[in-house]
């Protein structure tokens, strides 16, 4: 089996659709905050400075661009269901870094803990395992 077939292979179940759409919208919005300053975000420059000075992720601008880009593009890919497994895996990795660098001191989100990024990590991992499901571009491409 070719790698592209493995990446596109998915069931025809509708069960993953709400997760794919929900996580896709959330991740694209978070990425747009980092990259463009949309939805009350700080934009790339300020996010890069925060990453460098507060989180120790250097070079901050590059790390912010990578995190924001993965969240934004990965979220958009999930919304349409294109390369869902790869997008899910990339987003899970990004959330793992977020947990380790910014949210490791507590569990609950009310204390800036890992609860929310852990939920995003697990749902992204679920999509990496399950694929895009019904109503995804992956499903259409795999059927050909």
From TrEMBL:
Keywords associated with the record: Cell membrane, Membrane, Transmembrane, Transmembrane helix
Topology relative to the membrane: Multi-pass membrane protein
Q: Does the keyword Transmembrane apply?
A: yes
| Residue stretches spanning the membrane | 61-82, 89-110, 116-137
Give compartment(s).
Answer: Cell membrane
| Keyword Zinc-finger belongs to the record | no
Principal cellular location given in the protein's record: membrane
Which family is this sequence assigned to? Belongs to the DoxX family.
UniProt protein name? DoxX family protein
